[in-house]
TrEMBL record:
It comes from Dactylellina haptotyla (strain CBS 200.50) (Nematode-trapping fungus). InterPro entries: DinB/YfiT-like (IPR034660), DUF1993 (IPR018531). Pfam families: DUF1993 (PF09351). This is DUF1993 domain-containing protein. SUPFAM superfamilies: DinB/YfiT-like putative metalloenzymes.
Protein backbone atom coordinates (compact mmCIF):
# COMPACT_ATOMS: atom_id res chain seq x y z
CA UNK A 1 0.00 0.00 0.00
CA UNK A 2 1.39 3.40 -0.96
CA UNK A 3 1.69 6.00 1.75
CA UNK A 4 -0.13 9.29 1.56
CA UNK A 5 1.68 12.63 1.51
CA UNK A 6 0.60 16.14 2.38
CA UNK A 7 -0.83 16.64 -1.10
CA UNK A 8 -3.33 13.84 -0.45
CA UNK A 9 -4.49 15.49 2.77
CA UNK A 10 -4.85 18.99 1.37
CA UNK A 11 -5.48 19.57 -2.32
CA UNK A 12 -8.28 17.01 -2.85
CA UNK A 13 -9.93 18.08 0.42
CA UNK A 14 -9.73 21.77 -0.52
CA UNK A 15 -11.05 21.05 -4.03
CA UNK A 16 -14.06 19.20 -2.65
CA UNK A 17 -14.68 21.99 -0.13
CA UNK A 18 -14.52 24.75 -2.73
CA UNK A 19 -16.90 22.83 -5.03
CA UNK A 20 -19.25 22.35 -2.10
CA UNK A 21 -19.09 26.06 -1.27
CA UNK A 22 -20.09 26.81 -4.86
CA UNK A 23 -23.06 24.43 -4.59
CA UNK A 24 -24.09 26.02 -1.29
CA UNK A 25 -23.90 29.49 -2.85
CA UNK A 26 -26.03 28.30 -5.77
CA UNK A 27 -28.69 27.24 -3.28
CA UNK A 28 -28.35 30.62 -1.57
CA UNK A 29 -28.76 32.37 -4.92
CA UNK A 30 -31.87 30.35 -5.72
CA UNK A 31 -33.28 31.16 -2.27
CA UNK A 32 -32.63 34.87 -2.77
CA UNK A 33 -34.38 34.85 -6.15
CA UNK A 34 -37.37 32.93 -4.78
CA UNK A 35 -37.71 35.43 -1.93
CA UNK A 36 -37.09 38.65 -3.90
CA UNK A 37 -33.78 39.29 -2.13
CA UNK A 38 -31.11 40.97 -4.28
CA UNK A 39 -28.60 38.17 -4.94
CA UNK A 40 -25.63 40.40 -4.22
CA UNK A 41 -26.92 40.89 -0.66
CA UNK A 42 -25.80 37.31 0.03
CA UNK A 43 -22.11 38.25 0.12
CA UNK A 44 -22.75 40.63 3.02
CA UNK A 45 -24.74 38.20 5.15
CA UNK A 46 -23.32 37.52 8.63
CA UNK A 47 -24.13 35.32 11.60
CA UNK A 48 -23.61 38.17 14.07
CA UNK A 49 -22.91 41.88 13.76
CA UNK A 50 -19.33 41.52 14.98
CA UNK A 51 -18.49 38.69 12.55
CA UNK A 52 -17.10 38.91 9.05
CA UNK A 53 -19.54 38.45 6.13
CA UNK A 54 -20.00 35.50 3.79
CA UNK A 55 -17.60 36.98 1.23
CA UNK A 56 -14.82 36.96 3.85
CA UNK A 57 -15.51 33.31 4.67
CA UNK A 58 -15.09 32.35 1.01
CA UNK A 59 -11.98 34.53 0.63
CA UNK A 60 -10.37 32.99 3.70
CA UNK A 61 -11.16 29.41 2.63
CA UNK A 62 -9.61 30.30 -0.74
CA UNK A 63 -6.58 31.96 0.85
CA UNK A 64 -6.02 28.99 3.15
CA UNK A 65 -6.08 26.73 0.12
CA UNK A 66 -3.54 28.81 -1.78
CA UNK A 67 -1.33 29.55 1.20
CA UNK A 68 -1.09 25.88 2.09
CA UNK A 69 0.35 25.22 -1.36
CA UNK A 70 2.74 28.17 -0.98
CA UNK A 71 3.87 27.32 2.53
CA UNK A 72 4.09 23.53 2.35
CA UNK A 73 5.16 22.94 -1.25
CA UNK A 74 7.04 26.25 -1.52
CA UNK A 75 5.10 27.22 -4.65
CA UNK A 76 5.04 30.73 -6.09
CA UNK A 77 1.36 31.37 -6.74
CA UNK A 78 -0.47 34.55 -7.69
CA UNK A 79 -1.95 36.80 -5.03
CA UNK A 80 -5.72 37.00 -5.01
CA UNK A 81 -7.07 40.35 -3.92
CA UNK A 82 -9.84 40.08 -1.37
CA UNK A 83 -12.17 42.49 -3.15
CA UNK A 84 -15.20 40.34 -3.92
CA UNK A 85 -18.31 42.49 -3.58
CA UNK A 86 -20.89 40.67 -5.70
CA UNK A 87 -22.05 37.09 -5.94
CA UNK A 88 -20.49 36.92 -9.40
CA UNK A 89 -17.18 38.01 -7.86
CA UNK A 90 -17.41 35.25 -5.25
CA UNK A 91 -18.19 32.62 -7.89
CA UNK A 92 -15.18 33.86 -9.86
CA UNK A 93 -12.99 33.59 -6.75
CA UNK A 94 -14.08 30.01 -6.21
CA UNK A 95 -13.33 29.16 -9.85
CA UNK A 96 -9.89 30.80 -9.64
CA UNK A 97 -9.18 28.67 -6.58
CA UNK A 98 -10.33 25.50 -8.34
CA UNK A 99 -8.19 26.37 -11.36
CA UNK A 100 -5.21 26.93 -9.08
CA UNK A 101 -5.75 23.51 -7.49
CA UNK A 102 -5.91 21.89 -10.93
CA UNK A 103 -2.57 23.52 -11.81
CA UNK A 104 -1.03 22.43 -8.52
CA UNK A 105 -2.17 18.86 -9.11
CA UNK A 106 -1.06 18.68 -12.72
CA UNK A 107 2.28 20.47 -12.36
CA UNK A 108 3.35 20.56 -8.70
CA UNK A 109 2.05 17.47 -6.92
CA UNK A 110 5.58 16.16 -6.40
CA UNK A 111 6.50 19.34 -4.49
CA UNK A 112 4.46 18.07 -1.53
CA UNK A 113 6.38 14.80 -1.21
CA UNK A 114 8.61 14.58 1.84
CA UNK A 115 7.54 17.95 3.25
CA UNK A 116 6.08 16.57 6.49
CA UNK A 117 9.13 17.66 8.54
CA UNK A 118 10.01 20.74 6.47
CA UNK A 119 9.81 24.09 8.23
CA UNK A 120 6.75 26.20 7.50
CA UNK A 121 6.76 29.80 8.66
CA UNK A 122 3.49 31.69 8.84
CA UNK A 123 3.75 35.44 9.29
CA UNK A 124 1.03 36.76 11.57
CA UNK A 125 1.85 40.44 11.28
CA UNK A 126 2.03 42.10 14.67
CA UNK A 127 2.05 38.73 16.44
CA UNK A 128 5.27 37.68 14.71
CA UNK A 129 6.03 34.48 12.87
CA UNK A 130 4.62 31.07 13.77
CA UNK A 131 6.79 28.07 13.01
CA UNK A 132 5.45 24.67 12.10
CA UNK A 133 6.54 21.53 10.33
CA UNK A 134 4.67 20.80 7.11
CA UNK A 135 2.64 18.14 8.91
CA UNK A 136 1.83 20.25 11.98
CA UNK A 137 0.85 23.20 9.76
CA UNK A 138 -1.59 21.04 7.79
CA UNK A 139 -2.99 19.33 10.91
CA UNK A 140 -3.11 22.25 13.32
CA UNK A 141 -3.74 25.27 11.12
CA UNK A 142 -4.58 24.73 7.44
CA UNK A 143 -7.32 22.11 7.68
CA UNK A 144 -8.96 23.51 10.86
CA UNK A 145 -8.86 27.05 9.45
CA UNK A 146 -10.29 25.98 6.11
CA UNK A 147 -13.16 24.15 7.79
CA UNK A 148 -13.83 26.96 10.26
CA UNK A 149 -14.54 29.34 7.37
CA UNK A 150 -16.24 26.65 5.28
CA UNK A 151 -18.70 25.80 8.05
CA UNK A 152 -19.21 29.47 8.90
CA UNK A 153 -20.26 30.07 5.27
CA UNK A 154 -22.65 27.11 5.54
CA UNK A 155 -24.00 28.43 8.85
CA UNK A 156 -24.57 31.92 7.47
CA UNK A 157 -26.64 30.53 4.60
CA UNK A 158 -28.56 28.20 6.90
CA UNK A 159 -29.19 30.99 9.40
CA UNK A 160 -30.64 33.22 6.68
CA UNK A 161 -33.17 30.54 5.71
CA UNK A 162 -31.44 28.74 2.85
CA UNK A 163 -32.55 25.13 2.93
CA UNK A 164 -29.23 23.34 3.27
CA UNK A 165 -28.53 20.35 5.46
CA UNK A 166 -25.88 17.82 6.38
CA UNK A 167 -25.73 16.22 2.94
CA UNK A 168 -25.23 19.65 1.35
CA UNK A 169 -22.41 20.29 3.82
CA UNK A 170 -20.78 16.94 3.07
CA UNK A 171 -20.99 17.56 -0.67
CA UNK A 172 -20.62 14.79 -3.22
CA UNK A 173 -19.50 11.64 -1.43
Amino acid sequence: MASADLFDFTVPLFRKGMKTLKALLEKGEAYAKENDIPVDDIVGWKLADDMKPLSFQIQTASNTTKNTCVRVAKLDLPVMDDKEETLADVYKRIQLTLDLLDTVESKHKAEFVGKEASEVIMSTGSRGDRKFTGLSYVQNFAIPNFYFHFVTAYDILRNKGVQVGKLDYLGAL
